[in-house]
Every structure is written in structure tokens, then in C-alpha cells.
Amino acid sequence: MLIQDHVLLHQWHPVLLSRDLTEVPRSVEVLGEKLVVFRTSKGVHAFKDLCIHRGVPLSLGKIVEDQIVCPYHGWTYNSCGTCTRIPSMPKERAIPSKAKTVTYSCAEEFGFIWVCIGEPNLTNPTIGDGTFDDPSYSTVIMGPYEINAAGPRLIENFLDVSHLMYVHEGLLGDSEYSEISDYQVHQVNGTLVTDEIEVYQPDPDGRGHGVNSLYTYKVFNPLCCSFTKKIIGSDDYFDLYLIVLPVNEQQSNAFMMMERNYALNDPDKIFIDFQDLLIEQDKVIVENQKPELLPLDLQAELHLKCDRLSIAYRKMLQDKGLSFGTA
Ligand code: FES
Ligand code: CO
């Protein structure tokens, strides 16, 4: 599976929030591969989560003087993955040159820890077109939301405007106003971008005020998308980015980045709590959809005009030859 899927293999994937990686090594899974991620004074590092001596996960070990130490017999690996100490071996013997573990590209950017298990197709991780460096905006990072569904299922759910009136009724939509006006999907430099889509929202941020909102959706790559939401009659708007970690074909971790131009000093918790609620509502749906893997054959399901974006997304996956998480 890994070898076949060149798109996801060479892409950066978020694995943890930066603040969740302390001095304790963490185990993570990317495309079915178990890794240990850890922090030293030199930066962040990702290795195969397996000591080459007797197969114990290095994530059970600890960091001592910037090196990771296996908990079983104390073999110690430096940040390049080279074994520098074998405590049970006589000191005069040289450490075998084969004593090296497998290392992967690891980076810290935008408040996330990122890993690429292939050859990174970009030097640095990106979150779509976001720069997140304008001090007149407030940003919040959210996740990981652990979901038992394939990554493309999560992305398609995020892009699905007509579920707002049902799954998030009373908050993001009202079933009395569920008709979706026609919109088009455009390709702009490899990104899918929709026209603005108007939605009536009874309580879109948990504060109890109904508004009409305009959504513009974007899809940057198979597992990263966003929408911009403008409130009609106000200058308020925000961007919400979804980046999905493909843990394996059945499990995904969703990470989000929100950037807003209003309520700049409100505590992050307000936005995180609200998003937690929305994700709980979506989780019931995506964890139960059949087939589990997103069908790319457009004849396999029925589509409406309002599903244009889902269709464009499925075509994008087909064009890129994505096999992971699709059927
Ligand atoms: Fe890791 Fe022996 S298994 S040191
Ligand atoms: Co939803």
C-alpha cells in the first residue's frame, strides 16, 4: 500500500500538535507505519518505532542528553539514528556500523509536528495557501480528532455543504432552508475553488445569533482543504483549514487551523469547544458510511448539482492516482 501510493508517501503529514511533544517520546502512525517522534535541543526527529536489537518500540524509551535510549537494554541512538552506545558490550569493542535505525523527515511548523515517510515533495510543510503570519488575525489550532474512517471520507464530509442543515441543524444550518443555490468549482493553479455559497445559519458560533454566511471552499491536496466563511452584513470572516493524517486506511486524525479577523482576544477554548461539538456530530456519519473507502467511480453513487465539489474532489483523487483510502 505504501509503495503504491506515491502521492501520500511523499507528502508532509501532521502527526502531533507542537505543544503535545514534550521531553517524552511519542508513538505515532503514518500510512500504517509505526514511528517514534521526539524532541531534542537540535529539533524534532522521527524514527521507525523499533529498536534494531530486539524489536522493542523506542517510544517506550526516554531522551537522555539529546539521544533516545531503548528501555530494554539501553541501546542509545543519536538524532541521525546511529547507535552510539551498547551498554552490555565491552568498551574496547567498536559499535557495529550496521547499528542504525530508519529515520524519516520531521519538521515543526505552524504549531504542528510534521512527518514525511518518503522523499518530501516540498522542502517545508504547508497548510494550503495559509501563511498565518498576519498579527491582525487570531489563529487557533485544534486536534487531533481521532476518527475511525478513511482520510478522503473526512475531507469529503468537510466539503459537503448540504449536510450542514441536517448533521449540524440548529447550529450551522436549518432544514427549513436546505436548498443549495447552484455554484461552480474552478481549478486555480491546481487548487479546487468554489464560488461563494450562501447558507442560513441559526447559531454558527455557539453565541445564539442567526446569520447568513457565504462559504468559499478550497481543496489543496488529497488531505488538505479549507473554507472561508464571511458573515453577510458584517466584516467578520474566518478561514478553517482541515489537514488529515492518514493513520492507516481505517483510521485518521483530523487537525484544524482557524484564522479569524474578529473576537481577537477571545480565549481559544471557546472555538475549540464548539469545534469539538461539530466533530462529534460528523464522526457518527463518517464512521458509518459505506463503503468505508471513498468510491472514485462516479457511477457508484447518485449525485446532485450541490455535490459538484464532492465530484470535483473525487476526480482530483483519480487524476492524482490516489489509492490510499479510496475504492
Ligand atoms: Fe532495544 Fe535491546 S531491544 S536495546
Ligand atoms: Co460537518
TrEMBL record:
GO terms for molecular function: 2 iron, 2 sulfur cluster binding; iron ion binding; methyltransferase activity; monooxygenase activity; oxidoreductase activity, acting on paired donors, with incorporation or reduction of molecular oxygen. The keyword Methyltransferase applies. It comes from the Bacteria. Transmembrane segments: none annotated. Pfam families: Rieske, VanA_C. GO terms for biological process: methylation. Gene3D superfamilies: Naphthalene 1,2-dioxygenase Alpha Subunit, Chain A, domain 1, Rieske [2Fe-2S] iron-sulphur domain. Keywords: 2Fe-2S, Iron, Iron-sulfur, Metal-binding, Methyltransferase, Monooxygenase, Oxidoreductase, Transferase. Residues 12-115 form the Rieske domain. This is Vanillate O-demethylase monooxygenase subunit. It comes from Litchfieldia salsa.
